[in-house]
Sequence to fold (329 residues):
Amino acid sequence: MGIKKIIVTGAQPTGGFHLGNYLGAVKNWCLLQEDFECFFFIPNLHAITCLSYSPKELRRNTIQMLAQFMACGLDPQKSHMFIQSSIRGHTELAWILSCLTPVGQLFRMTQFKAKSEQKDFVGGGLLYYPILMAADILLYNAHLVPVGEDQKQHVELARDLAIKFNQTYAETFDVPEPYILKAGARVYSLQEPTKKMSKSDPNRKGTIFIFEPIDDIRKKIRSAVTDSGTGITFSKNKPGIANLMDILAALTGLTVEAIEAEYGTYSYSAFKNCVAEAVIEHVKPLQERYLKLLKNKEYLDSVLEESKKVVQTHASRTMSKVYRKVGLF
Fold:
């Protein structure tokens, strides 16, 4: 058996996974564990770029995110799960990479421009965020980085910096490739079905969180925006119904054609009830596992401690090479 390729990805400890995260990414991460060496991390350093956060909540959310990883199917026997700030090397490598990064390239990053608009205060962390992300990737010499389309630009920066470091000093880093998860469903807001579902959506009724109360999930789906007309048919002119059909298809494995055949004569309200029950049936066992894990903090701590030993070894090996090549002690 050959050496497995390395995959690195993570999820910020803010708000937890929503249905779009789960169907579009996390379900696929579970499949990647079988064929790759996977580093799944919680980027808590990224979470402090906004000064309005609560340190107490950040610590709590970080542990809860680990429990969510595992409740959704990530296996500590198959993958490395760790907290970004607990591993030495992320910030050190980010500093070294920042010395190779043109400031103009950072100002052109799409997410920086979007997040810095109409803000009275924009911290340097928001500007340098993509460099820390590049360090997260290169520290483990990742071959592949599972990302959505909106994150491809950040992987491109990591690629640019890997190439520039190799050319400036010596061959050190593998050049990572974005790994677009084709099988994942694209889930839209229940209230604005032309916009992606988002944890930062100010309209909380548009986003289904995997670990929120079951009654809230049911209410949100029942109040989902639909379209004029009748009949359960898949059409770009009926984005509300199309979104609900996509969700049902992702959860059941049915094609949209099969859904049309089975539910075509249903009223919108009856169809929403069917989608709500399908979502609830799927998330209920995840919620049960999650609550069980949260009650066993000793076990969660042991998972982090065991993973840290392996992850820190990888990171220290990389930083030893980097320091030597750039002339540091």
About this structure: Residues 297-326 form the longest helix (30 residues). The longest strand covers residues 37-42. The two ends are 37 Å apart (CA to CA).
